[in-house]
Amino acid sequence: MDDTGNPLVGTWHLVRWDIRYGDGRAPTLPFGAAATGLILYTHDGSMSACIAQAGRAKLSSDSVRSAPVDERLAAFESFFQYAGRYRIQRQDGRLQVVHSVTQSLNPNFVGTEQTRWIDWPAQDQLALSASDTVPGTAVARHHRLLWQRGPQP
Fold this sequence. Notes:
Blueprint: E1 10-21, E2 36-41, E3 46-52, H1 69-77, E4 79-91, E5 94-104, E6 113-119, E7 125-133, E8 140-149
Antiparallel strand pairs: 1-2, 1-8, 2-3, 3-4, 4-5, 5-6, 6-7, 7-8
């Protein structure tokens, strides 16, 4: 815990992002086993998160604006980012963090609130999780992101 008494404050590095499914299919790793990521929580209530697939191809152009469309699409699909304000709340006796999104690579995230359950699986580890359904189906899925405080694992 930092000197503000807020255990989230600081820099966290992604260890693993997995998704488990309610229909029994095998778990998936959306950006692969070697995905990298960073989530920052500040003492004044700001947050920023980004996750990248390992081994992302470089663009053939120095500017993303002049890169071929297929390269831009691949770059978009292999990176996830959003930022905004956050607050901690208690729900059903458990802690949650609510991210109020003000910026995002995905414009549909702007203006949304992304609620994550908080767990502490080990010292200096943070697990954030949320459930939703697979788009276009009624199949439940559960996202779990494990983060490590301190130097990148």
